[in-house]
Amino acid sequence: MKIAIFGDVHGNLIALEKFFKLEKDTTDLFISHGDIVNYGPWSNECVQFLNDQTNCKVLKGNHEQFYLKGNYGGNNIIAKTFFEKCFENFNANLLDIIKKYDEKIVIDDYTIQHTINDSYIFSDTKLDDIVLDSNYIIGHSHQQFQRTVGNKLLINTGSIGQNRQYLNQSCYLKLDTNTKKITLKSFLHDIDKVINQMKSDNYPEICLDYYLSKQKVIF
Fold this sequence. Notes:
By secondary structure, this protein is of the alpha/beta class. It is built from seven helices and ten strands. Helices cover 29% and strands 24% of the residues.
């Protein structure tokens, strides 16, 4: 079986639709490790899009948890402003879909979930206190990497909708359960369409500045 594992879409329908267009003919199963909603202008559409796919499993991320609680609850003013803008426009009926998302899924030797210990784990994060009980595939930090912790693999898919460094680069991975091969993959999408929609939707200046401050890979 060939599985495409992805996450951190964050309301970026432009990137999500391109991802499925690129992979649909060579993928048996899609698995999202969460954070479909918030930040970008199409949280409703992204949740509905994934729900309409017959070969896709979706897990909860921290932003799905925020939506279910109806409250961001953190101290980051940028994240708080994004939440207030996006959540007020979210279709409450779609919360019934989000409620059904699982927390994790195990495929062969891999545990797939949004993150470990609610932590942002990067390629250079010290992990002295973490003992992995299996190989893990995670997201959350929006940075793609593969590293070894003890005798286990820890792999971050990166982000489909909001790359940590290059905002118009989408990252994910493919797992071939027959060959046991993991392939880290990426593509470029038109982030200007996302930003222009945010402007049209009257996003607060602090939100627009956050996107505009990021680097882009030149097409």
